[in-house]
Amino acid sequence: xxxxxxxxxxxxxxxxxxxxxxxxxxxxxxxxxxxxxxxxxxxxxxxxxxxxxxxxxxxxxxxxxxxxxxxxxxxxxxxxxxxxxxxxxxxxxxxxxxxxxxxxxxxxxxxxxxxxxxxxxxxxxxxxx
Length: 129
Ligand code: THU
What we know:
The chain has helices at 2-13, 53-63, 84-91, 113-116, 123-126, and strands spanning 26-31, 36-40, 69-75, 98-102, 108-112. It is α+β, with helices and mostly antiparallel strands. It has a single domain (2-125), classed as Cytidine Deaminase, domain 2, CATH 3.40.140.10. The chain has a five-stranded mixed sheet. It starts with a helix and ends with a helix. The relative contact order is 0.17. The site of tetrahydrodeoxyuridine has 13 residues, from helix 2.
């Protein structure tokens, strides 16, 4: 399954709209039901409204009714890790989601949202009085 996710992420990466950074990112998010949602980064001339590949994949999945996520593969040229905003966004939907970080040659490492975001601020933080 790891290889499938990397392949979907890499294929989706080809659709990245990156006229400003030139940094193509692709993601593939696997649900408990076995569905896979791809996402790429989509930049904008108003830089700040650009969206990362990971969040594209989550938003696509969530808007189709998915809620439980097993793993996400992220492919970049250099195997780069998700930005802080994406770590926070992913944490909302599960700290145990496996994160596969792959480079353009298919070399990969595996981690998790929990490891990428220690001492996460999530829904449980708001219930502590
Ligand atoms: N980018 C992602 O898609 N995911 C990340 O987690 C890191 C950054 C994108 C945003 C922007 O389009 C480009 O990479 C350079 O920052």
